[in-house]
Amino acid sequence: MPVSDQERIATQMRNPRIVRLWQALAPLRSCVSFMNTGAHPDDETSEMLAALALRDGIALSYACANRGEGGQNAIGSEGTHDLGVVRTAEMERAADVLKLNLYWLSETPDDTIFDFGFSKSGTDTLEKWGRERALKRFVEIIRTERPDIICPTFLDIPGQHGHHRAMTGLAHEVMSAAADPTFPDVDLPVWQVKKLYLPAWSGAGDNYDDDLPPPNATLTVKASGEDPVTGWSWAQIGEQSRAFHLTQGMGRWVPYGEPNDWPLHLVRSEVDGPDNELTDGLPATLADLAEFAGAPEIADHLEMAQTACEAAFAAFPDMNRVALQAAMALKAVRAARDACPDRARGEVQHRLAAKEIQLSHVMRIASGVSVRATLERDVLRPGEEVTLSIETTGPVAEVTPVLPEGWRHSDGVVHVPAGAQSTDCYPAVYRPGVARLPAIRVVVTVGGVSSETLLPLERAPVVLPARSATLSPDRALINAAAETRQIDLRISDVFPHSGQAALALPSGWNAEPVAGGLRVEAPQDVASGLYSLPLQIDGAHAETENRIAYPHIDARARTFPAQLSVRVLDVALPDVRIGYIGGGNDRVGHWLRALGLDVTDLADNDLTADSLRSVDTVVVGIFAMRARPALKDAMPQVKAWVEAGGNLLTLYHRPWDDWDPETVPPRRLEIGKPSLRWRVTDENADVTHLVPGHPLLNTPNRITDEDWKAGTRSAGFILPRAGTRPMSRFSPWPIPMRRRMRARFFRPASARGGTHMWRSSCTIRWRSLCRARSA
């Protein structure tokens, strides 16, 4: 929907012109570029980067491996790919604060470079990501951005997350690979990174347990102090950036005066001389660039540009003088660009291109130019038309829309072509200074010098598919051991609205129209397996759209094929009554019911001795101890119920999820910290059944060594079949994760004292029954 007046006022209040101009001037101080590297959104060293960018003027970039699809979501229900969409948008907003060019190794939701969960080994991580694929993409990023310096956030040492270790290991390799003209399949000019630093601080904490000490510091980035215009410390600006990582609960208050220096260790350098400062041996300013590049032909132009940049700083906050000096600097930069000899272009041209963009923004802001461009609707379909309104203030020379290929603009109307692609929810690159299309080109002329900037629309439009529908459910389970073979499928949000929707059915399946959708029926003799039933609208492929909107990010949508995925199993079920206590982070109760079990969701007022006596087994959902305070209060009744013979299964919890080892579990059970040390993260780890004859492992379905073998890239329950046959596997959705949740359902214990099971991050730890160990 269009931006409201209240939203516009709030945006205006957050972005005073004088602060925008001061921050736009900052990158004129330097010609050096610094790339931070990490595995996930929020791995960036935001506080140090704030000082480097807004104090020192160093150009920043961040190379991030994946979209954080395997992380937690502190603000909503999105998970895996949809969570990746949210965290991508959060990372872009965080990058805006730091003026940070953002690159992803992962380019699509189905990319092999996926946040598959915890790993302890960088080598194992790269096996899953595809080592050649990851290094090739990293080389593309380095050759595109051309950083002088790269610096990972974490160390490649035991006890650290395997994803972090993989990116740090690749940073060593990519420095050589990006400069190697024989590196295959990357059609970009080679680039030699000049320096590689490692953090000289430990990455240990609640999650990670660095076994080795950090390397010695060879220099320290002083990040104490504050911005002279806003009065914010660099650490506070860094946290303003981190606060956009809301799904991870980021953003902390940093008091004034808290020391925030960052020690670094120089691993490799391709430049001569001492290394007392990051910029040593590099072209610190435009005036240094000619000598550094061996291009005396452009020295005078660059000296003039540097003098004008310094004069623009000195003129602040006199807007007219700042604009005039920026125009003079831009004229000199262009002259240097045109006169640059071929031998120096590799070191010079990308730096001057960046300066041209920076100076153009300074000229526009200092001139008082403001442009607000709005579409009447921000959700579009292929073939539609939408009105574009443009409001300008200040001495604008030219304002024109710049549209994606195939789009047209005439008489204030934007025409979206019939073949328009859906908006990319996993964009591979984001540059805060250059807007994505559709955008507005703004030309400003000062002192006879014209500059051009590309500004975003007030709200970026989201293009949805030409044919789409929502299926509910889009995943279903049929237990061949049960009677029912039917799935009631609701089909809603059909577009075009007059379209006829139908499923493409496997042989022997049937679908009858019912109110709001279809009743799908599998044949009585349906075989175990995974069945995909795609939806067609008017005989053509249809997609489903998951729209995502939060106040702190732009609206996004993930589109994917519209289909009903049905997993058929043959599972023996006990006659057991299950009470499920969910924490709002999973759908375990739903899938237990779908399997055919008798499941009751227990509300807070059901956590009483009387209610517990009505069930045989209680399953506590992920994080429920934190999300359900009443559960923690009710644990004395739960313990008494377990002592009387009830069975308790507790799913994934962390130490900080209100888990008191003395008072929460029926017997003392401490979740190890740092958590990575105590996690089994290798799906190939051996699992030993210490009591192989125990009923839990044999009835009503037998669990054998075969059941613990690593499966395909999927997620879900693994449930054994009855008797001694190997179990069937339930992995209803082919999503790139290697986590499997192994669940086991059983009759209540006949003897006094029930059973308690606690699920760690990737396996269930069955007290006294089995043990998993990393290979």
From TrEMBL:
| The protein's name in its UniProt record | LmbE family protein
The record ties this protein, via InterPro entries, to:
Class_I_gatase-like, GlcNAc_PI_deacetylase-related, LmbE-like_dom_sf
Q: What is the lineage of its organism?
A: Bacteria, Pseudomonadati, Pseudomonadota, Alphaproteobacteria, Hyphomicrobiales
One Pfam family, short name please?
A: PIG-L
